[in-house]
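Appendix B, example 12.
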Amino acid sequence: MWTSVEIGIDLGTANLLIYSKDKGIILNEPSVVAINTDTNEVLAVGVEAKNMIGKTPANVIAVRPLRDGVIADFNTTSSMLKAIMKKVSKKLGLSLRKPSVVVGTHSGSTSVERRAIVDAVSSCGVKNVHLIEEPVAAAIGVGLPVDEPIASVIVDIGGGTTEVAIISFGGVVTSNTIRIGGDKFDDLIIQHVRKSYNLLIGQRTAEQIKIELGYAPIEHEEITMEVRGRDLVNGLPKTITLHSSEIQKAIRESLLQLLLGIRLTLENCPPELSGDIVDQGITLTGGGALLNGIQEWLSSEISVPVHIASNPLESVAIGTGRSLKYINKLPKASIS
């Protein structure tokens, strides 16, 4: 007798993660697909495709089919999911069994966006698809008491969007989706380098700069990094030295908007739950939680404890996989 296979998918703008209840995280790859435009054939997905960004011939493009946490290109997303599910079925030996899948969606998503996710995942030949709101999944993944009447605040800083949600008794009490995430920081760094140094750098270089030199608005010891790109004046390769203080300045405005979104969500919190937030604090998840100094900066700005999830990049994926045991306990609004 086969037991049913349950997997959770975090369909992120930057990364796609798959969690199996028996093996934990079985796949963590960038949400990138390389396509031959002449034949529409998928040449690579994940890490292989990401390594091709900006380095392909004219008839091959490396694209990210998800933008701001939603499906921007349905056909490419379906192709990417099919290729990824092939990898997963090899790892899990799914040739004879169809899995039950839970996918995280952000809390502000429309019924059209949700339908697109269900259709894309269903096209991979799965048994059934459930959707769960990402903040609830992140809270389950972090191990917060989601099914109790206690306020848990999740700030999930992803690639395309940041979700701020107050969760109590298995559902989202109030939430805010801010269209700011890791990608926005990368874009701001590209603009800054272009404006200040007449140098053109790619997305991958910008991401590397963000990881090494990106700081929240706090005092810190200055660090530098050498960066290579193309000189916009003479078109030749050029190397410059960047400082962490200028990158901090470049992303500051977006971080302040993020702070405003967190404040607005806390202001809409019912008074009964505000006391819990003072005790429990806020939990940061998503790749943006790894930005240097963000925990220190947020706790000084909003005067409540701020914790970073032990594994911020994987929280949503772990939560989607574990949420199947909560399905009967959580309100229908959280899982559909």
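The chain has three domains: 6-137+318-326, 146-180+256-312, 182-250. The first strand starts at residue 6 and ends at 11.
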